[in-house]
Amino acid sequence: MREGLKTQDGGIQYDLSASTFSPDGRVFQVEYAMKAVENSSTAIGIRCKDGVVFGVEKLVLSKLYEQGSNKRIFNVDRHVGMAVAGLLADARSLSEVAREEASNFRSNYGHNIPLKHLSERVAMYVHAYTLYSAVRPFGCSFILGSYDQDDGPQLYMVDPSGISYGYWGCAIGKAKQAAKTEIEKLQMKDMTCRELVKEVAKIIYIVHDEVKDKAFELELSWVGEVTNGKHELVPKDVREEAEKYAKDSLEEEDDSDEENM
Amino acid sequence: KMAAATATRFCQQLSSVSDMSPDWTTKEVSTGTTIMAVEYEGGVVIGADSRTTTGAYIANRVTDKLTPIHDRIFCCRSGSAADTQAIADIVTYQLGFHSIELDEAPLVQTAANLFKASCYRYREELMAGIIVAGWDKRRGGQVYTVPVGGMLVRQPVSVGGSGSTYIYGFMDSNYKPNMTKEQCLHLVSGALSLAMERDGSSGGVIRLAAISESGVERQVILGNQLPKWSTA
Q1: What is the full DSSP assignment across chain B?
Q2: Between the N and C ends of chain B, which has fewer C-beta atoms within 10 Å?
Q3: Domain boundaries, chain B
Q4: pLDDT tens, position by position, A10-51
Q5: How far is B103 from chain A (nearest CA, A)?
Q6: What is the pTM of this model?
């Protein structure tokens, strides 16, 4: 439903720039940016008792791609990881912004940046791009996660409008609703990272649409007690165990469906 | 030190009768000083003398060299009075802003790093020896020393200022780890008293403060109540 800039029917357009409100108080450019995120494949982040786990459904558009290219999980600081959905180029640019913020903080104040503060700073940056007609809003959402001895595990999400929320579990991208439903079933506050990493893999496999999107790579990363506070991609053996668990769970469900029929 | 010497020579040249006028008309205001800070279980005890000199004249005999930077973070100032006051004001502003942004009480380590940043960047122009001490909920009581030059190091005990040279032996033999607050207060007042006795640039009253989770307790030990170390 668009209101047009002096279109033939005489109406006026409010969606051409981020510096214009519509009569019902919406900034359409920001909403369109969020649409860009919804078109991207899913990314989830879950916070548990002793850490944070990220999972990204990375759709492989061509067999010619090198395996592991176009990563969607970034390291922002030693103790902070970032999983993204939306326009990957916009996300890369924001990961650089987050890295600089974290680095400057450490340089000025002598210790790790608290995740709440980092997410507020990056959110402020994202918000700035929703104020002017000369630029467009960022077309990506991202999830930030960290672990340290004093604050424990933390999880924050930032969206194109420039707000940040703290979460226990969070999903962005095309299957975020389905993913959220699965996440809500988990008792994450009582789980450890090792248990959670298998559940995250399972959720990504569940929400992946075999019909519409064919091949995908699962990107898994974690930060917590298990990694001594360092954010890193999950080691090969843990990955394989998690993917096996995910595939087996799906088969079980298929089998039980057949029995029901 | 070179900068201070150049400054004083410049000031002397300005006064055409420098040989005839007393040195306090030409010398920089200095917190000659003895300062110290000690960590204990649950907090820190800090102490300082109260003498500020311009040459041989005591410009202020009741100075407060223990300056609050935040609710539970203090600094002990030695060196140039102007320099240390200016730096303390800047760090107070920076730390206050940082604390509001974070919506959390600031860490002692953060305050110490801010002092270090200023003291190191402007090391050629400054003459400031600062001890940063306080309590935060992450690491409890902490003492960080930032001597002239702008180094930063955490120590369980630290002494500073011109009078500190006279009490290194006393500290080495009398400090023991894991003392109580009362033992620390006793140690600090005893050490400061000895230094004030021997160092011409230190004297006056002893100012003490104990910083812990529950807050800051300040006290003053007047001249006639100073701990006595000799019968003379």
Answers
A1: -HHHHHHHHHHHHHSTTTTTS-GGGTSPEEE---EEEEEETTEEEEEE---EEETTEEEESS---EEEEETTEEEEEEEEHHHHHHHHHHHHHHHHHHHHHHTSPPPHHHHHHHHHHHHHHTTTT--EEEEEEEEETTTEEEEEEE-TT---EE-SEEEESGGGGGGHHHHHHH--SS--HHHHHHHHHHHHHHHHHH-TT--S-EEEEEEETTEEEEEEE-GGGSPP-S--
A2: C
A3: 34-221
A4: 556 888 899 999 999 999 999 999 999 999 999 999 999 999
A5: 9
A6: 0.84
